[in-house]
């Protein structure tokens, strides 16, 4: 008998056996409590739930980034506001000092042409090794001539346990000076930058009249 006839005769039996096996497998699952249609439906529901949760997760991430940016902006704004508040407070204090000075200007002037230093102050600046000196120069008299001259700063410093002095402006010859020109009063503010490890104890201000080598006035101040 040809092979194709044999296979054509066996094919119905094979198909029936496979169908019976598939039916038995499905029946066994149903007897075990497993229903394919319900499982597929639950799987679809789970996939839909995963998609919903993924979308919610992305939305929460986006909102979290937005809130973080808003927080950074708010913190930056608070820092800027604090800086402005400090600047206004310092300016207010300076204006109060100026007001007190002008209210007592007549008493402060003293003799005609007499030079005086007021509100001399030495403080640490914001950067390491940097100091700031402030002073108000006043020339007495109602008809005072314009003062023309200069000033030097002699800083007493400690480095490695040793006390020494530094001259500002820093010049090898020691002849360099900061120039001055005013009639009644002049507010002076000078920044001093020192090497690392050097600490300032005090500063002496030396004021020179133009053409005169000896200081007309000396006044010292300690670090506040």
Task: Give your account of this protein's structure.
With 224 residues, this protein is α+β, with helices and mostly antiparallel strands. The chain folds into 2 domains: 25-103; 109-222, Immunoglobulin-like (Sandwich). The protein is 46% helix and 32% strand. The chain has 3 helices and 8 strands. It has helices spanning 3-31, 36-103, 105-109, and strands spanning 115-124, 130-139, 147-159, 162-168, 178-182, 185-193, 198-209, 217-222. The longest helix has 68 residues, at 36-103. The protein is rod-shaped and about 145 Å long. The mean pLDDT is 80.
Q: Could you name the CATH class of the largest domain?
A: Mainly Beta
- What general outline do the C-alpha atoms trace? rod-shaped
Strand segment count: 8
| Poorly predicted runs of 5 or more residues | none
Strand residue content: 25-35%
Average pLDDT metric:
80
CATH topology of the largest domain: Immunoglobulin-like
Main β-sheet: number of strands, strand sense, barrel status?
5 strands, antiparallel
Please trace the helix and strand order, writing H or E for each element.
HHHEEEEEEEE
Bin the helical content.
40-55%
The radius of gyration computed from the alpha-carbon positions, rounded to a whole number of angstroms, is: 45 Å
Work out the count of structural domains. 2
Structural class: alpha+beta
**So, CATH architecture of the largest domain?**
Sandwich
SS summary, helix count: 3
End-to-end C-alpha gap: 121 Å
């Amino acid at each position: 008998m040809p092979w194709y006839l044999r296979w054509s005769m066996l094919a119905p039996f094979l198909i029936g056996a496979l169908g019976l096996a598939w039916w038995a497998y499905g029946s066994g699952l149903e007897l075990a409590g497993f229903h394919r249609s319900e499982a597929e439906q639950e799987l679809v529901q789970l996939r839909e739930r995963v998609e919903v949760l993924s979308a919610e997760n992305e939305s929460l991430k986006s909102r979290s980034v937005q809130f973080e940016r808003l927080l950074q902006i708010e913190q930056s704004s608070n820092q800027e506001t604090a800086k402005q508040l400090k600047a206004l407070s310092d300016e207010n204090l300076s204006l109060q000092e100026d007001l007190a000075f002008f209210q007592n200007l007549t008493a402060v002037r003293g003799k005609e042409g007499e030079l005086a230093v007021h509100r001399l102050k030495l403080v640490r600046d914001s950067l390491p090794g940097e100091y700031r000196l402030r002073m108000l120069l006043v020339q007495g008299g109602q008809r005072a001539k314009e003062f023309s001259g200069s000033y030097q700063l002699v800083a007493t410093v400690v480095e490695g346990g040793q006390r020494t002095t530094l001259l500002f402006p820093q010049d090898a010859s020691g002849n360099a000076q900061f120039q001055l020109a005013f009639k009644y009063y002049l507010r002076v503010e000078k920044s001093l930058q020192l090497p690392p490890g050097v600490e300032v104890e005090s500063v002496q201000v030396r004021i020179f009249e133009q053409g005169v080598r000896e200081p007309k006035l000396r006044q010292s101040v300690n670090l506040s």
